[in-house]
Amino acid sequence: MIKIAICDDEPIFIEQIKSMIKSTLSGAQISYLTDSFTSGESLCEKLKGGTFYDLAFLDISMNGMNGIEAGERLRHYFQIKKTIIIYISSYDNRAKEVFCLDTFRFLSKPIDPELFKKDLLSACNRLSEIRDDFFCFKDITRGQCNIPIEDIIYLEISKGHKINVITKDIIYVFYGKLSEAFKKLETKGFLLIHHSILINYYHIRQISYEKVLMSNDAELAISGPKRKEIRANYMQLRKNKEDDR
Predict the structure, then answer these.
(1) How confident is the model at residue 244 (pLDDT cuts 50, 70, 90)?
(2) Collapsed DSSP state (helix, strand, coil) of residue 207
(3) Residue 145 pLDDT class (50, 70, 90 cuts)
(4) CATH architecture for residues 140-243
(5) Helix ranges restricted to H, the chain
(6) Mean pLDDT of 116-123
(7) Residue 63, helix vs strand vs coil
(8) How far apart are CA 124 and CA 3, in angstroms?
(9) Which of 26, 67, 95, 100 could form a disulfide with 58 if both were Cys (CB 3.0 to 4.6 A apart)?
(10) Helix axes 113-130, 11-27, angle to 10 degrees
(11) Which pLDDT score, from 0 to 100, does residue 127 have?
(12) Which pairing describes strands 162-167 and 152-158: parallel, antiparallel, or unpaired?
């Protein structure tokens, strides 16, 4: 399932984009879900609630918060790096303004259906390549979430068979087993330091034999039986990181 945001203050263009998405993705047998927004502010309110989009079509020129400002908030304020952004504008001279936001494509209005189809399918191919970089779960209040693994600081067991997913700005909660989450994340640099805590190596600020300090200043204890194993695994991950430089 690909989650797509369409942000344009002209409803006629929203409907045109939705129609072209349906034609392209239905033909390619790709499941998708679209959310439509008529302002940058309304899109940002949705992002503030923790919703993540795989792909966003942003109109540059809108009343109030324009598409460039919305893209800047998505990338820098909400720290969402993995959403693929395709900008749309009637003014080609604004194309250069958006590529500092890691923009995937720029489409001119009126939109060429064939070019749109080509760019949308290219975006879907890119998504399939990076899909393994996301952790997918059903948050108990936000619904289905696909968050970049690099954003996760740690996971912890909560009451009532719940798992808390701790990120820099948001705490997600879903029903599940930490052991199953570990199976998905073990090869991504995660360490099970306690039967109830799974941490992201890349967010470790300091580590000692008994505890770790994470990037959000959380101090977490390493269980006694796991201290030797965690130390060895940490050193191996550190070596792998240095070898990749």
Answers:
(1) low
(2) strand
(3) confident
(4) Beta Barrel (2.40)
(5) 11-27, 40-48, 67-72, 95-98, 113-130, 178-185, 227-243
(6) 96
(7) coil
(8) 11
(9) 67
(10) 60
(11) 86
(12) antiparallel
Alpha-carbon distances, residue 55 vs 16, 58, 80, 90, 128 (angstroms): 17, 10, 11, 20, 12
pLDDT score recorded for residue 158: 94
- Record the pTM: 0.61
How many residues in the chain? 245
8 Å CB contact between 5 and 88: no
Domain ranges of the chain: 2-133, 140-243
Averaged pLDDT score across all residues of the chain: 91
Rg, Å, the chain Cα set: 20
Do 2-133 and 140-243 share a fold? no
Task: For residue 188, give both structure tokens.
Answer: 């991504």
Listed residue (51, 21, 33) closest to 43, CA to CA: 51
Average pLDDT over residues 220-233: 94
The third-level CATH classification (topology) of the domain covering 2-133 is Rossmann fold (3.40.50)
**Residue of 14, 50, 66 lying closest to 35 (CA atoms):** 14
Task: Name, in order, each residue with C-beta under 8 angstroms of 223's C-beta and a sequence gap of 6 or more.
Answer: 193, 194, 195
Whether 153 and 214 have beta carbons less than 8 Å apart is answered as yes
Task: Check: CB of residue 190 under 8 Å from CB of residue 140.
Answer: no
